[in-house]
Design a protein that fits this description.
By secondary structure, this protein is of the alpha/beta class. The chain has helices spanning about 5-15, 25-30, 45-50, 85-95, 110-125, 130-140, 145-160, 170-175, 180-185, 225-235, 250-255, 255-270, and strands at about 55-65, 70-75, 105, 215-220, 240-245. A three-stranded parallel beta sheet has the order 3-4-5, sandwiched between helices.
């Protein structure tokens, strides 16, 4: 395995900067057999929806070397559906791959039913008017009303991310070709209603058999609530839970330096 200088910074940059994973250096590193950390949006349905004409994407190629699963630049048709971090849990449980040294589950959904239950609990903290707007949308199936859109936007601001401003990181400010179909078909109309392909995703109990060292990351105000994160931590027999106090669904933005420090320490310990 070729030594890559300053791998720590490369991994952080690759996960934080779109341009980093498009460079020749990224190709050289993947070709040399060094595993890359690639943001989920570049894998699976979302990437295909954003760039349907791309001949190649960064994705899991289904190959292992010395038992280690690698991400690399591969033909799109050969990529496995590995676009959501939940698929990591499914992959590890169902395929029992040898040689994986550790897992990092950052604000992850291990159970559709628990996720939905926790989202509805959080909704109860919204103003009564917004609660009623969301309840009406759920009852009628009309998710296009002005009242609903305002309420769900406030909900997501509370638990996902703040509005993008001039002071936001560049990766949030850049123009995006973002669609909604992959989210609707994969999950549902919002975080509260699982109606898509993942509606029966239930791996919390199954995680008890995963003894790979696992870092569970979440924010105290996260969509992945402390109850969900603790349930994962309790289920995984060899896990550590890092709670980012005050952070929502993107602690890597809201507490960036600390997040990178936590990841770097974990990766260097478990490489």
């Amino acid at each position: 395995m070729r030594e890559v200088k300053d791998m720590e910074n490369f991994l952080i940059q690759a996960a934080y900067d779109e341009k980093a994973v498009e460079t020749e250096s990224a190709r050289e590193i993947t070709a040399s057999g060094v595993p890359l950390v690639i943001p989920a949006e570049y894998l699976g349905m979302e990437r295909m929806e954003r760039d349907p004409e791309d001949a190649e994407i960064y994705g899991f190629n289904g190959e292992e070397s010395d038992g280690v699963a690698f991400f690399s630049l591969i033909p799109r048709e050969d990529a496995l559906p590995f676009g959501d971090v939940d698929s990591v849990i499914e992959y590890v449980y169902e395929r029992h791959p040898d040689g994986i040294r550790s897992l990092i589950l950052s604000s992850t959904n291990p159970s559709a039913s628990m996720w939905v239950k926790e989202q509805h609990r959080l909704v109860k903290y919204l103003p009564e008017k917004e609660q009623k707007a969301i309840a009406k949308a759920e009852a009628t199936g009309d998710f296009d009303s002005k009242a609903y859109k305002s309420a769900i936007a406030h909900y997501m601001e509370q638990h996902c991310a703040a509005p993008v401003t001039a002071d936001s990181p560049e990766c949030l400010r850049r123009e995006k070709k973002a669609g909604t179909l992959s989210y609707i078909y994969g999950w549902g109309p919002n975080e509260l209603n699982a109606t898509g392909d993942l509606k029966d995703f239930e791996y919390l109990e199954k995680m008890k058999s995963i003894d790979i060292p696992t870092l569970v990351i979440s924010g105290s105000e996260d969509l992945c609530t402390p109850a969900i994160a603790k349930a994962m931590h309790d289920a995984l027999p060899n896990s550590k839970w890092e709670l980012f106090v005050g952070s929502r669904h993107m602690p890597f933005v809201e507490d960036h330096n600390h997040y990178c420090k936590v990841l770097a320490e974990w990766l260097m310990t478990h490489l």
